[in-house]
Amino acid sequence: MTSLPLIQIASDDPTGSTSRRAAMPPRHLADLDLSGRQAVVTELGESAFRARQISTHYFGRLVREPARMTDLPAAARDRIAAELLPNLLTPVREVATDDGATRKALWRLHDGSLVESVLMGYPDRVTVCISSQAGCGMACPFCATGQAGLTRNLSTAEIVDQAVYLAGVAASGLLAGSPSRLSHVVFMGMGEPLANYARVVAAVRRLTAPAPEGLGLSQRHVTVSTVGLVPAMRRLADEGLSVTLALSLHAPDDELRDELVPVNQRWKVAEVLDAAWHYAERTGRRVSIEYAMIRDVNDQPWRADLLGRLLTGRLTHVNLIPLNPTPGSRWDASPKPVEREFVRRLRAAGVSTTVRDTRGREIDGACGQLAAAAVTQ
């Protein structure tokens, strides 16, 4: 088996491991609930209702620049902005493809770290894929972000600000043929969301709280992915949330999954799936099984049959992902006939299965590719 680097798990993760620490950004209103924002504003000598005003601009009107919040007196606006509206994301590059329906943004954070997010427009919905960490410590060898390693966790506001910015892009009408309102958020960008547990859960609450507390999205339209951090998966089941849990499985057997998803060396397939079924039982939500189709690696018919046996009768759905290969990688996508046979076998086992829509190949669409390109330029 291929030798793999040590898995890095964030320091606030309930699994108990420790990774390198880095300076977090200044406090932002999205780090706080409305009462927390009101406390900051009153400490500045301003009326508490100013917190609602500035929150309405940010979450309700998608205005991120203090200078545009003209219904606040200039002096008050400057004081509040200094405490609650620091600039968190500096645009480095923004590219579009799919006739403008897919837009990928690369951001530089206050410490120079790079993160990515993607806006995807469909006829019936607008989805944003956001990052929860700068880099990733899970070391999955076929993933561009995993190859880069972990830099640090993102703050709650750094996570939320990606969605607010791209919600504003959608509201501007740039996604032709799609609604103008952001409706779905998936935590499938850079990083392992459950390795930044506390801030990701806080971000989910902020994204789903009604404006001006938050962005007002439906919890059922939020998906949180994980490679299988079992203690965090079980903790998430007790949060009282109704988000979709997406498990990045990628192999149904421990021998292969140990190589493709190194955290499997700590929590094996059976234990990870047991935690997934616990989540489904506690929340009533169908678990999404994410499975990247990798040529001659995990796409054999017998693995489709094994996966079908593991999942049959469960509250689950399989989302097969045509691999978006990274430059220089030895990994490649499965041929379409192989993919179709994999789908056929899963459906024959009674497992709901779809193939993910391929977006962004022309713009370094695989997670981490844009950031990797920026680093090497």
From TrEMBL:
This is Probable dual-specificity RNA methyltransferase RlmN. Keywords: 4Fe-4S, Cytoplasm, Disulfide bond, Iron, Iron-sulfur, Metal-binding, Methyltransferase, rRNA processing, S-adenosyl-L-methionine, Transferase, tRNA processing. It catalyses: adenosine(37) in tRNA + 2 reduced [2Fe-2S]-[ferredoxin] + 2 S-adenosyl-L-methionine = 2-methyladenosine(37) in tRNA + 5'-deoxyadenosine + L-methionine + 2 oxidized [2Fe-2S]-[ferredoxin] + S-adenosyl-L-homocysteine; adenosine(2503) in 23S rRNA + 2 reduced [2Fe-2S]-[ferredoxin] + 2 S-adenosyl-L-methionine = 2-methyladenosine(2503) in 23S rRNA + 5'-deoxyadenosine + L-methionine + 2 oxidized [2Fe-2S]-[ferredoxin] + S-adenosyl-L-homocysteine. PANTHER family: 23S RRNA METHYLTRANSFERASE, RADICAL SAM CORE DOMAIN-CONTAINING PROTEIN. Belongs to the radical SAM superfamily. RlmN family. One of its GO terms (molecular function) is methyltransferase activity. Its cofactor is [4Fe-4S] cluster. Pfam families: Radical_SAM. The lineage of its organism: Bacteria, Bacillati, Actinomycetota, Actinomycetes, Micromonosporales. Residues 1-22 are annotated as: Disordered. Reaction proceeds by a ping-pong mechanism involving intermediate methylation of a conserved cysteine residue. Specifically methylates position 2 of adenine 2503 in 23S rRNA and position 2 of adenine 37 in tRNAs. S-adenosyl-L-methionine binds at residues 191-192, 225, 248-250, 324. The active site is at residues 116, 367. Its EC number is 2.1.1.192. CDD domains: Radical_SAM (cd01335). It comes from the Bacteria.
